[in-house]
Amino acid sequence: DAGVTQSPTHLIKTRGQQVTLRCSPKSGHDTVSWYQQALGQGPQFIFQYYEEEERQRGNFPDRFSGHQFPNYSSELNVNALLLGDSALYLCASSYTGGVYNEQFFGPGTRLTVL
Amino acid sequence: ELKVEQNPLFLSMQEGKNYTIYCNYSTTSDRLYWYRQDPGKSLESLFVLLSNGAVKQEGRLMASLDTKARLSTLHITAAVHDLSATYFCLILGRTSGSRLTFGEGTQLTVNP
Description:
The structure holds 2 protein chains of 2 kinds. Chain A is built from no helices and 11 strands. Chain A is an all-beta fold. In chain A, the strands form 2 sheets. In chain A, strands 2, 4, 5, 6, 9, 10 and 11 form a 7-stranded mixed β-sheet that branches. In chain A, strands 1-3-8-7 form a 4-stranded antiparallel β-sheet, with no helix packed on it. Chain B is mainly β. Chain B has one domain: Immunoglobulins (Immunoglobulin-like). Chain B has strands at 4-7, 10-14, 19-25, 29-37, 43-49, 55-58, 61-66, 71-76, 85-93, 100-102, 106-111. In chain B, strands 2, 4, 5, 9, 10 and 11 form a 6-stranded mixed β-sheet that branches. A 5-stranded antiparallel β-sheet of chain B has the order 1-3-8-7-6, with no helix packed on it. Chain B is globular and about 45 Å long. The mean pLDDT of chain B is 91.
Protein backbone atom coordinates (compact mmCIF):
# COMPACT_ATOMS: atom_id res chain seq x y z
CA ASP A 1 0.00 0.00 0.00
CA ALA A 2 1.53 3.27 -1.16
CA GLY A 3 -0.30 5.33 1.42
CA VAL A 4 -1.37 8.87 0.63
CA THR A 5 0.59 10.40 -2.23
CA GLN A 6 0.81 14.02 -3.31
CA SER A 7 2.26 15.78 -6.31
CA PRO A 8 4.25 17.78 -6.97
CA THR A 9 6.64 17.78 -4.02
CA HIS A 10 7.72 21.37 -4.49
CA LEU A 11 6.33 24.19 -6.58
CA ILE A 12 7.37 27.78 -7.20
CA LYS A 13 4.87 30.25 -8.59
CA THR A 14 4.57 34.01 -8.90
CA ARG A 15 1.83 36.24 -7.57
CA GLY A 16 -1.36 36.15 -9.60
CA GLN A 17 -0.74 32.73 -11.06
CA GLN A 18 -2.89 29.67 -10.54
CA VAL A 19 -1.78 26.31 -9.13
CA THR A 20 -3.19 22.78 -8.99
CA LEU A 21 -2.07 20.27 -6.39
CA ARG A 22 -2.95 16.58 -6.53
CA CYS A 23 -3.62 13.89 -3.96
CA SER A 24 -4.22 10.15 -4.18
CA PRO A 25 -5.76 8.65 -1.06
CA LYS A 26 -4.74 5.52 0.77
CA SER A 27 -6.27 2.37 -0.65
CA GLY A 28 -9.79 1.83 0.71
CA HIS A 29 -10.28 5.46 1.72
CA ASP A 30 -13.11 7.54 0.30
CA THR A 31 -12.64 10.96 1.91
CA VAL A 32 -9.97 13.54 1.24
CA SER A 33 -9.22 16.62 3.34
CA TRP A 34 -6.85 19.45 2.49
CA TYR A 35 -4.85 21.55 4.94
CA GLN A 36 -2.56 24.55 4.69
CA GLN A 37 0.40 24.68 7.06
CA ALA A 38 2.37 27.92 7.22
CA LEU A 39 5.88 27.76 8.61
CA GLY A 40 5.89 27.26 12.38
CA GLN A 41 2.12 26.91 12.63
CA GLY A 42 -0.42 24.13 12.91
CA PRO A 43 -2.27 22.92 9.82
CA GLN A 44 -5.43 24.86 8.93
CA PHE A 45 -8.38 22.95 7.48
CA ILE A 46 -9.27 24.09 3.94
CA PHE A 47 -12.02 21.66 2.91
CA GLN A 48 -13.06 18.05 2.77
CA TYR A 49 -14.40 16.01 -0.15
CA TYR A 50 -16.59 12.94 0.00
CA GLU A 51 -18.53 11.33 -2.85
CA GLU A 52 -17.13 13.97 -5.20
CA GLU A 53 -18.70 16.81 -3.25
CA GLU A 54 -17.33 19.37 -0.84
CA ARG A 55 -18.63 18.27 2.54
CA GLN A 56 -17.06 20.85 4.83
CA ARG A 57 -15.08 24.02 4.35
CA GLY A 58 -12.76 26.03 6.54
CA ASN A 59 -12.24 29.79 6.57
CA PHE A 60 -10.57 30.08 3.20
CA PRO A 61 -11.59 32.39 0.34
CA ASP A 62 -13.19 31.20 -2.86
CA ARG A 63 -9.79 31.37 -4.55
CA PHE A 64 -9.32 27.94 -3.01
CA SER A 65 -11.35 25.31 -4.78
CA GLY A 66 -11.20 21.59 -5.13
CA HIS A 67 -12.44 18.52 -6.83
CA GLN A 68 -12.74 14.84 -6.11
CA PHE A 69 -12.75 12.27 -8.87
CA PRO A 70 -14.64 8.96 -9.05
CA ASN A 71 -11.45 7.12 -8.04
CA TYR A 72 -11.40 9.26 -4.83
CA SER A 73 -8.30 11.21 -5.83
CA SER A 74 -8.51 14.94 -5.37
CA GLU A 75 -7.18 18.25 -6.60
CA LEU A 76 -6.72 21.56 -4.82
CA ASN A 77 -6.77 24.66 -7.01
CA VAL A 78 -5.65 28.07 -5.88
CA ASN A 79 -6.28 31.08 -8.12
CA ALA A 80 -4.73 34.53 -8.04
CA LEU A 81 -1.87 33.45 -5.80
CA LEU A 82 -0.73 35.76 -3.02
CA LEU A 83 2.57 35.78 -1.18
CA GLY A 84 0.68 34.59 1.90
CA ASP A 85 -0.33 31.39 0.12
CA SER A 86 3.23 30.13 0.51
CA ALA A 87 2.92 27.08 2.74
CA LEU A 88 3.03 23.32 2.98
CA TYR A 89 -0.22 21.89 1.63
CA LEU A 90 -1.18 18.61 3.19
CA CYS A 91 -3.71 16.12 1.99
CA ALA A 92 -5.24 13.57 4.35
CA SER A 93 -7.43 10.63 3.50
CA SER A 94 -9.83 8.67 5.66
CA TYR A 95 -12.59 6.09 5.47
CA THR A 96 -15.94 7.56 6.40
CA GLY A 97 -17.44 4.24 7.42
CA GLY A 98 -14.74 3.44 9.94
CA VAL A 99 -15.12 3.87 13.69
CA TYR A 100 -12.00 5.94 14.07
CA ASN A 101 -12.21 7.96 10.84
CA GLU A 102 -8.45 8.31 11.21
CA GLN A 103 -6.78 10.89 9.00
CA PHE A 104 -3.67 9.64 7.20
CA PHE A 105 -1.50 12.41 5.83
CA GLY A 106 0.50 12.59 2.64
CA PRO A 107 4.03 14.02 2.43
CA GLY A 108 2.74 17.43 1.38
CA THR A 109 3.42 19.91 -1.41
CA ARG A 110 5.65 22.86 -0.56
CA LEU A 111 4.33 25.90 -2.45
CA THR A 112 6.43 29.04 -2.68
CA VAL A 113 4.86 32.19 -4.14
CA LEU A 114 7.31 34.87 -5.26
CA GLU B 1 -16.52 27.83 16.38
CA LEU B 2 -14.30 25.07 17.71
CA LYS B 3 -11.16 26.35 19.42
CA VAL B 4 -8.24 24.14 20.36
CA GLU B 5 -5.44 25.20 22.68
CA GLN B 6 -2.27 23.29 23.37
CA ASN B 7 0.23 23.98 26.07
CA PRO B 8 3.02 24.37 26.40
CA LEU B 9 3.90 25.54 22.90
CA PHE B 10 7.58 24.92 23.51
CA LEU B 11 9.03 22.27 25.79
CA SER B 12 12.69 21.59 26.43
CA MET B 13 13.42 18.65 28.65
CA GLN B 14 16.23 16.34 29.63
CA GLU B 15 16.42 12.71 28.71
CA GLY B 16 14.89 10.48 31.33
CA LYS B 17 12.39 13.04 32.58
CA ASN B 18 8.59 12.90 32.43
CA TYR B 19 6.27 15.58 31.13
CA THR B 20 2.71 16.17 29.94
CA ILE B 21 1.33 18.10 26.97
CA TYR B 22 -2.21 19.42 27.30
CA CYS B 23 -4.88 19.89 24.65
CA ASN B 24 -8.03 21.83 25.57
CA TYR B 25 -10.97 22.27 23.23
CA SER B 26 -14.08 24.38 23.34
CA THR B 27 -16.99 22.25 22.07
CA THR B 28 -18.19 18.68 22.16
CA SER B 29 -15.77 16.42 20.39
CA ASP B 30 -16.46 13.32 18.36
CA ARG B 31 -12.90 12.15 18.07
CA LEU B 32 -9.47 13.37 19.12
CA TYR B 33 -6.21 12.55 17.41
CA TRP B 34 -2.57 13.04 18.30
CA TYR B 35 0.07 13.47 15.62
CA ARG B 36 3.82 13.86 15.49
CA GLN B 37 5.61 16.02 12.93
CA ASP B 38 9.37 16.04 12.35
CA PRO B 39 10.91 19.15 10.76
CA GLY B 40 10.07 19.40 7.06
CA LYS B 41 7.99 16.22 7.18
CA SER B 42 4.35 15.30 7.16
CA LEU B 43 2.24 14.21 10.12
CA GLU B 44 2.48 10.76 11.64
CA SER B 45 -0.56 9.41 13.44
CA LEU B 46 0.05 8.48 17.08
CA PHE B 47 -3.31 7.93 18.77
CA VAL B 48 -7.06 8.11 18.13
CA LEU B 49 -9.28 8.64 21.18
CA LEU B 50 -13.02 8.20 20.97
CA SER B 51 -14.66 8.11 24.34
CA ASN B 52 -14.44 9.61 27.78
CA GLY B 53 -11.75 7.96 29.85
CA ALA B 54 -9.99 6.48 26.83
CA VAL B 55 -6.32 5.82 27.41
CA LYS B 56 -3.84 4.57 24.85
CA GLN B 57 -0.14 3.86 25.20
CA GLU B 58 2.63 3.27 22.72
CA GLY B 59 6.16 3.03 24.02
CA ARG B 60 7.01 6.11 26.08
CA LEU B 61 3.87 7.99 25.03
CA MET B 62 0.45 7.73 26.65
CA ALA B 63 -2.64 9.68 25.60
CA SER B 64 -5.86 10.14 27.53
CA LEU B 65 -9.18 11.84 26.96
CA ASP B 66 -11.60 13.52 29.39
CA THR B 67 -14.59 14.62 27.33
CA LYS B 68 -16.31 16.24 30.30
CA ALA B 69 -13.35 18.52 30.93
CA ARG B 70 -12.76 18.80 27.16
CA LEU B 71 -9.14 17.91 27.77
CA SER B 72 -6.68 15.45 26.34
CA THR B 73 -3.18 14.82 27.61
CA LEU B 74 -0.10 13.34 26.00
CA HIS B 75 2.25 12.05 28.66
CA ILE B 76 5.90 11.40 27.96
CA THR B 77 7.70 8.94 30.20
CA ALA B 78 11.50 8.83 30.50
CA ALA B 79 12.02 10.98 27.41
CA VAL B 80 14.67 10.10 24.84
CA HIS B 81 16.18 12.30 22.13
CA ASP B 82 14.24 10.49 19.38
CA LEU B 83 11.01 11.95 20.76
CA SER B 84 12.10 15.45 19.73
CA ALA B 85 9.41 16.67 17.31
CA THR B 86 6.30 18.83 17.20
CA TYR B 87 3.15 17.22 18.57
CA PHE B 88 -0.33 18.24 17.48
CA CYS B 89 -3.79 17.36 18.70
CA LEU B 90 -6.61 17.34 16.15
CA ILE B 91 -10.26 17.56 17.10
CA LEU B 92 -13.27 16.46 15.11
CA GLY B 93 -16.11 18.45 16.61
CA ARG B 94 -19.54 16.97 17.02
CA THR B 95 -21.61 20.10 16.53
CA SER B 96 -23.08 20.83 13.15
CA GLY B 97 -20.60 22.46 10.82
CA SER B 98 -17.66 22.04 13.16
CA ARG B 99 -14.52 21.33 11.32
CA LEU B 100 -11.37 19.38 11.84
CA THR B 101 -9.28 21.73 13.96
CA PHE B 102 -5.64 21.39 14.99
CA GLY B 103 -4.03 22.75 18.09
CA GLU B 104 -1.07 25.11 17.67
CA GLY B 105 1.40 22.33 18.30
CA THR B 106 3.97 21.67 21.02
CA GLN B 107 7.58 21.75 19.91
CA LEU B 108 9.41 19.24 22.08
CA THR B 109 13.19 19.18 22.38
CA VAL B 110 14.77 16.40 24.41
CA ASN B 111 18.34 17.17 25.43
CA PRO B 112 20.92 14.49 26.22
